[in-house]
Design brief:
The chain is α+β, with helices and mostly antiparallel strands. Helices cover about 15% and strands about 45% of the residues. Strands 1, 2, 5, 6 and 9 form a five-stranded antiparallel sheet that branches. It has a five-stranded antiparallel sheet with strand order 13-12-11-10-14, with no helix packed on it. A two-stranded antiparallel sheet has the order 3-4.
Length: about 170
């Protein structure tokens, strides 16, 4: 007879979700770390990276009983803080939630969360236009950003590198 398996929640150390995931998987545990593609500024360029949907958490599938894989190594795994529990009882996660998250994650992979959205107010940070606010338009084919600014009451489109922008407050 097979071991009945359920999903549980692992609390990871800060920014170590991937480390915990890899180390748990290397030990033979089935894990799931839902991620969202998100645009980030790295070395002055916009890059898309997979960011955890729930920072500091990942899911692990475990069984109970004598025939099940031991839970003991989990807590001492690099990147892991602990298994989440409430009132001494390890928190079980409904299978339906995991399936829902997998479906939503698959849909989200097609369209990354953008750092700047068209129509959003932005502020230029580099001379000679530092401090001037504009409206984010789009990225051109050369990965430069087009920003609409107003000079002498006339709208002008400028092409700038992503690193020279920040969200307007």
């Amino acid at each position: 007879m097979g071991v009945e398996m359920h999903w549980y929640l692992v609390h990871t150390k800060p920014r170590q979700e991937m480390c915990a995931l890899e180390n748990l998987q290397q030990q033979g545990y089935q894990c799931y770390l839902p991620t969202l593609p998100s645009e980030k500024l790295r070395h002055g360029s916009l890059m898309v990276s997979a960011e955890p949907l729930f920072p500091r958490y990942l899911f692990i599938r475990l069984g109970r009983g004598d025939a099940a894989k031991s839970w003991a190594p989990i807590r001492s795994t690099k990147g892991v803080s602990r298994l989440v529990s409430f009132g001494g009882e390890t928190a079980r996660v409904n299978d339906g939630l995991i399936e829902l998250l997998r479906t939503q994650e698959a849909l989200a992979q097609a369209e990354p969360e953008r750092l700047f959205r068209p129509g959003e107010r932005v502020c230029l940070t580099e001379a000679p236009f530092a401090g001037i606010e504009g409206i984010y338009q789009m990225i051109d084919g050369e990965r430069r950003i087009m920003v609409l600014i107003e000079i002498l009451s006339r709208p002008v489109v400028m092409r700038v590198v992503p690193a020279s922008l920040r969200k307007a407050s």
